[in-house]
Amino acid sequence: MLDPQASLALAEHVADVARRLGLDIALIGAAALAVHRYTRGTEDIGLAVSVDPHSRLLGLQAALDVEGLQTELRLPDDDDPPGGVLVVSLPSNDDDPADVIQLLARNSEADLDAVREAAAPFDRQGQLESLIEQAMLLRGRQR
């Protein structure tokens, strides 16, 4: 669950990016409830926008991705009353980098050029080379 300060900062940042794109937004979900003194846990911030999700919402998603935020766009379908949802969250602090380091360190036969090529589209933060270096250091200590 996001802490309240991080939640507020995330909502304000998304609102600023949306405004720069000419989009008006409204706070929805658990964060909106908290403004009215009813709090419950949440993992993200819900912001509603009344735009064409196939163009303008895609533009907002792209702008937030460039900002380093994690986004998931759910385009509307027959079972989606809101007409499209863009979920925005802070980059995770989970153990994924540690998992990558351990995986590379324990698999000395891994073709690092193939790893670089396969991982490049997902390396938004530019961390892959650092992770490979850490794995090589760890691999040297494990011998």
Element string (H = helix, E = strand) = HEHEHEEHHH
Q: Estimate the mean pLDDT confidence.
A: 79
* Backbone shape: elongated
The CATH top-level class label of the largest domain: Alpha Beta
What is the multimeric organization of the chains shown?
Answer: single chain
Low-confidence stretches: none
Distance between the termini: 40 Å
In percent, how much strand structure appears in the residues?
5-15%
Considering the chains and any ligands shown, give keywords for the structure.
single chain; 143 residues; alpha+beta; Beta Polymerase, domain 2; 2 domains; two-stranded antiparallel ribbon; 4 strands
Would you give an account of this structure?
With 143 residues, the chain is an alpha+beta fold. It folds into 2 domains: 86 residues, 2-Layer Sandwich (Beta Polymerase, domain 2); 47 residues, no CATH class. The protein has a two-stranded antiparallel ribbon with strand order 1-2. It has a two-stranded antiparallel sheet with strand order 3-4. α4 crosses α6. The longest helix is centred in the N-terminal third of the chain and has 17 residues. It is elongated. The model has no long low-confidence stretch (mean pLDDT 79).
Q: In terms of topology, how is this protein built?
A:
Layout: H1 4-20, E1 25-28, H2 29-35, E2 46-49, H3 53-66, E3 70-74, E4 85-89, H4 96-105, H5 112-119, H6 128-142
Helix pairs in contact: 4-6
Q: What's a concise summary of this model?
A:
The chain has 143 residues and is α+β, with helices and mostly antiparallel strands. It has helices at 4-20, 29-35, 53-66, 96-105, 112-119, 128-142; strands spanning 25-28, 46-49, 70-74, 85-89.
